[in-house]
Specification:
153 residues, 17% strand, elongated, 5 helices, alpha+beta, two-stranded antiparallel sheet
Length: 153
C-alpha cells in the first residue's frame, strides 16, 4: 500500500466504496497452498459511527417549531369578510384574539360560526374570554384555565 493510499484511508478522503485487492501470487504453488481463493474485499472509506439502537431512544425535534416564535394576533373585524383572514392566521398556527364589540351582533354570530368550523377543521379550540371577545387557538397551543360566565353587560 502506498503512502498516498495510507493518507487517504487515515483522513477518509475517498468517499466512494472502493475495492481493495489482496496481493496474489503468480505461481500455482501459492494457490495450491491456500484452500480458498481470496476475493477482493469491499471497504467503505467513510467513517462509521457506533449505533445507539439499544442504548438511547432517538429523539426527533422539528427545527421549524424550535426556531419560530409563537405569535398572538389581535383582530377587531368590521365586516364578515375579515373572518377568512382570521382563519388564515389559524391555519398558520397562530393564536387569535377576536374582539367583536364593534360589529353587528348578527355578523358577529356568523364570524363565530365560521371560526368554529375553522378551529374544528384544524383541531384547535375556541373559547369566550370576555363580552364579545373570543380566543381561537390552533392545535399546537394549549389553553389552561377558564373565564367565569359572569359578564357585566
Amino acid at each position: 500500500m502506498s503512502l498516498k493510499n495510507k493518507l487517504q484511508n487515515f483522513f477518509y478522503l475517498d468517499d466512494e466504496e472502493r475495492e481493495v485487492e489482496t496481493p496474489k501470487a503468480s505461481t500455482r504453488q501459492h494457490e495450491e497452498q491456500t484452500p480458498m481463493r481470496e476475493q477482493p474485499k469491499k471497504v467503505n472509506s467513510r467513517r462509521q459511527t457506533p449505533s445507539r439502537e439499544s442504548s438511547q431512544p432517538a429523539t426527533v425535534v422539528s427545527l421549524q417549531s424550535a426556531q419560530k416564535s409563537s405569535k398572538v394576533i389581535l383582530v377587531e373585524p368590521r365586516v364578515y369578510a375579515e373572518a377568512q383572514d382570521i382563519s388564515e392566521h389559524l391555519k398558520s398556527k397562530r393564536a387569535v384574539v377576536v374582539n367583536l364589540q364593534r360589529i353587528d351582533r348578527e355578523q358577529g354570530v356568523r364570524i363565530v360560526d365560521f371560526l368554529s368550523g375553522t378551529v374544528y377543521a384544524i383541531g384547535g379550540d375556541i373559547q369566550r374570554i370576555g363580552t364579545d371577545i373570543f380566543l381561537c387557538v390552533p392545535e399546537n397551543v394549549e389553553v389552561a384555565g377558564a373565564i367565569s360566565d359572569y359578564f357585566e353587560q
